[in-house]
Amino acid sequence: MKKVLACLLVLASIGLMACGQKTEEKSTEAAAAAEEVLEEVDMTPPDNRAFDWNGEYLDATGGQALLTITPNPKRSKGYEILIYIPGGEAAFSTWSCTAIYDDAVGGLHYEDCVRTNMDTSESGGVETAYQKGTGVIIPSGDGSDTLLWIDDQERRGVDLRFERMAEE
Q: What is the pLDDT of residue 4?
């Protein structure tokens, strides 16, 4: 009886080891497949140097946020960026910064962005929320006139899609 029990234990151990090897083989195969897919994805940023950044853009998701990009007269290849988002009947916020085109991201990179909150009611006032914001503005795709705002400070631009407004 002890011999039979010992044989069963040995067989069970061998079976468990074999299952572990198959699971390990499957994990290795899955990891190799994932690596193959990652190798196929082109992580090169798009070349948007020829993109005409200048203009006014309206948020397509809500139609209230505005983005204005103008050339910076003091900085070669620089841009002035102003983003306006209403915050109710008598309040709004603005983000103001200077940006340059960055090849590494394929868009306009900014630092030292200033966010200002303004209350225009009788008890209103002006508050500087922060002064060292960073982020980028990039086209949503090749040949698109829709811009995405990636705000590193507070992720405020995550739901916004700025479409170029027609010039009058």
A: 45
| Residues paired with 67 in a beta bridge | 57, 83
Partnered with residue 150 across adjacent β-strands are 136
Q: Is the pTM of this model over 0.85?
A: no
What is the predicted pLDDT for the residue at 147?
A: 96
Residue 127 pairs in a beta bridge with 117
Residues in the chain: 168
Q: Which pLDDT score, from 0 to 100, does residue 98 have?
A: 95
User: Does the pLDDT at position 114 exceed 50?
Assistant: yes
pLDDT over 50 at 16, yes or no: no
* pLDDT on residue 1: 46
**Rounded distance, CA 1 to CA 24, Å?**
35
**Three-state SS at 104:** coil
Q: Which residues pair with 149 in a beta bridge?
A: 137
DSSP the chain: -HHHHHHHHHHHHHHHHHHHHHHHHHHHHHHHHHHHHHHHS--PPP--TT----EEEEETTTS--EEEEEE-TTSTTEEEEEEEEE-STTEEEEEEEEEEEETTTTEEEEEEEEEEEEE-STT-EEEEEEEEEEEEEEESSTT--EEEEEETTT-GGGG--EEEPPP-
